[in-house]
Amino acid sequence: MSKLVREMQEEEYEFEMPISMIDVVFLLLIFFLCASRFKAVEKKLEADLPKNEGPNAIPTKVEKPNEIRVQIYWANAKGQVISSPNFGDPNDVVRGASLDTSGAHIVIETNRKPRRDLNDLYRTLAELSGRNPEMPVVIDARQKVPFKWVIGAIDACKRANVANIKFQAPPVEGGGGSDWWWK
């Protein structure tokens, strides 16, 4: 045999990869990501499904959360709600008739029951919050009520150990809906 053939037979061959292993891993990863199918979003058509059936059904009877509502407003001698004791206020017109502002006084109510004064409010809040200390108290005062009455209601809440005090925002003009002020 020739010398060249003998050298070729005695030579050891090693397998050499022309590309690195990390490149192959990334190519396989990209292939599997492109070839796989992802799960479709569930409840995609929730708006088109009936709302009175199924696991997320809307209850037919909606219960209001338990709360103590303190309402403070101006009233005239007849008990009609007025916005302020100033005669001729344009907000005091109901269905085209101006309200009488004689005998205007502040009215404090708790859950639609009138209270004599801030001490009576304190006693009522102490009794109601004693039953359920976590029950929120919502102070709902008309816009032109003097601030001292709102502060007095807050003081009554603190004296009665009410920890959860909230405030009701005044109604938006032209916002629609009902306003409890006009009984």
How would you describe this structure to a colleague?
- Strands 1, 2, 5, 6, 7 and 8 form a six-stranded mixed sheet that branches. This protein has a two-stranded antiparallel ribbon with strand order 3-4.
- The chain has two domains: 3-35, no CATH class; 68-167, no CATH class.
- With 183 residues, the chain is of the alpha/beta class.
- The chain has helices spanning 3-10, 21-35, 118-131, 147-159; strands at 68-75, 81-82, 93-94, 97-98, 105-110, 113-115, 137-141, 165-167.
- It is rod-shaped and about 135 Å long.
- The chain contains four helices and eight strands.
- The model has no long low-confidence stretch (mean pLDDT 75).
Q: How would the blueprint of this fold be written?
A:
Blueprint: H1 3-10, H2 21-35, E1 68-75, E2 81-82, E3 93-94, E4 97-98, E5 105-110, E6 113-115, H3 118-131, E7 137-141, H4 147-159, E8 165-167
Parallel strand pairs: 1-7, 7-8
Antiparallel strand pairs: 1-2, 1-5, 3-4, 5-6
Task: Characterize the overall form.
Answer: rod-shaped
Strand content: 15-25%
Total count of strands: 8
Q: Main sheet, how many strands, which sense, barrel?
A: 6 strands, mixed
**Rg over C-alpha atoms, rounded to the nearest angstrom:** 38 Å
SSE order: HHEEEEEEHEHE
Number of domains: 2
Helix fraction, binned, reads: 25-40%
> Counting H and I runs of at least 4 residues, what is the number of helices?
4
Alpha carbon gap, first and last residue = 121 Å
> What class do helices, strands and sheet pairing give?
alpha/beta
Overall residue-averaged pLDDT value: 75
Unreliable stretches (pLDDT < 50, length at least 5) are none
